[in-house]
């Protein structure tokens, strides 16, 4: 799961965006262009700088990451990724990414939190910018994880993914559905966005990703000339509220989990991670950053989870 | 599950239709009106008559039901429902329904097939017409079930539900996802409909129902002045193809299921049935047909599954 939301959430876009759906058929089409049309901030740009996205987009991400780190601070180890994994780019400087990964301390419910951004110039002249924040709980609790992702492929188009992916089969566990999805009224946010004319539902082209998300998942494509205003007015308050729900009900909620169930959770979490890696990474990471960098990043992440 | 697709699929609409979403807040609003604005065909109307829907809608349902009965004929017992459950109405004659239920013979993979239609005059002057066909497999196989439902609330608006609901947790079983949903290319139909301007995604207001369906589920609202043409041109070929996939890959597919897995399937199927009954029936069936008729229908159905 870590990889999904960090590196791979980014390449996952290549598989899941309707507008880029042919990428899996024609990989070369989505290699980053060799020409650089935008200034770069070099390898030392920090994760929290979000250097390539708009003000409201950056403000939202900084707010979400800060909130998680403030609330969970005592449960999180410092980020121990090597500097060349915390920030890395391709040889031509047309693709640039940052990762921020903090594992949970042993006694906590936190497996890890993971933030990332990715910038990649497109052959068309525009750029793809993805920012994400996710947090994963360990098998001491069965509560849902957190997944936030903003995927911007043009100045007027953005895919928003905002969800608490469940960690159990909801058909077999209606009480779990009630606790985390019905009683929390999470669907009101999806319903609010659904009513806006600039917004329409987004379907990932990966059926596995569609299976991983919850029934209240916000999977939306926003298309508007006033994207920054949309982020400020609609996306930001909703994302903050979903995060608050996750913190209050999931990260700090008390759940009793027996040994059999712990084994089940580990099995399901592991399957979800490995399958997501398979779907998301494929050839995308090497394609964007070259094999050497891809290996380095992957190896560093694997050490942590 | 039987109840869901027979009686309850109908009342499920009252919970799940966006346009009627307030029904759960104001049950009396959706009692059928006492005035009859349309001729009735009496209690003897047969299931296969589909007397209240358009020609293309009826043709589609007759085609689907006939195809299932022809292919599965030797595996199905005759319908043994009492006549006053095979067709029933309310006291004022404003609500009328029919059910066709055939259980599978002992040695088969079929639990039962279930067809139904429901007609109900609306206080607004229009009518609600629901037709459905579903088929459920037993624990000798883990293959998906079949669910087809057309819910027409006005001459220009229809909700289409077309799915093979999975019987296992797809996150934990990616091979299952591949076999039944990826390799069968079921998503192409959803993608085709998604492109039509008259069609938009439909979200059931029941989060449990959203959890029950597959990632390739067609859950669409069609709004057009030319609904009959839409049914003929787009809905009919897709529904027939989905049914063909279900028959070839699920009903006649060979699956090895161990004893532990059979117990799991029974548990999940039972949970799904009982939860769906709870969601769907609630007060809807008594409200539409009166308590006495509701009890009679429910009791007859319960005897079979």
Automatic annotation (TrEMBL), chains A, B:
Domain of life: Eukaryota
Taxonomic lineage: Eukaryota, Viridiplantae, Streptophyta, Embryophyta, Tracheophyta
Protein name as catalogued: Uncharacterized protein
Annotated organism of origin: Arctium lappa
């Amino acid at each position: 799961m870590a990889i999904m939301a960090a590196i791979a959430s980014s390449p996952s876009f290549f598989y899941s965006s309707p507008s880029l759906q042919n990428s899996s058929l024609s990989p070369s089409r989505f290699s980053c262009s060799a020409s650089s049309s935008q200034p770069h901030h070099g390898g030392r740009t920090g994760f929290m700088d979000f250097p390539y996205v708009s003000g409201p987009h950056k403000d939202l991400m900084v707010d979400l990451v800060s909130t998680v780190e403030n609330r969970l601070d005592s449960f999180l180890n410092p980020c121990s990724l090597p500097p060349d994994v915390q920030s890395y780019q391709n040889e031509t400087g047309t693709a640039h990414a940052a990762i921020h990964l903090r594992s949970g301390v042993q006694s906590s419910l936190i497996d890890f939190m993971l933030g990332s951004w990715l910038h990649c110039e497109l052959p068309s002249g525009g750029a793809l910018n993805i920012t994400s924040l996710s947090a994963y709980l360990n098998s001491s609790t069965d509560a849902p994880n957190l997944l936030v992702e903003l995927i911007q492929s043009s100045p007027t188009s953005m895919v928003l993914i905002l969800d608490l992916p469940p960690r159990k089969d909801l058909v077999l566990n209606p009480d779990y559905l009630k606790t985390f999805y019905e009683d929390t009224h999470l669907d009101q946010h999806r319903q609010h966005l659904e009513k806006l004319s600039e917004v329409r539902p987004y379907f990932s082209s990966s059926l596995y990703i569609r299976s991983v998300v919850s029934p209240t998942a916000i999977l939306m494509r926003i298309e508007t000339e006033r994207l920054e205003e949309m982020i400020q007015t609609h996306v930001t308050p909703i994302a903050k509220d979903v995060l608050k729900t996750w913190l209050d009900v999931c990260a700090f909620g008390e759940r009793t989990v027996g040994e059999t169930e712990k084994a089940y959770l580990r099995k399901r979490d592991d399957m979800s991670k490995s399958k997501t890696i398979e779907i998301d990474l494929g050839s995308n990471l090497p394609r964007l950053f070259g094999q050497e960098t891809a290996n380095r990043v992957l190896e560093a992440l694997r050490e942590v989870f």
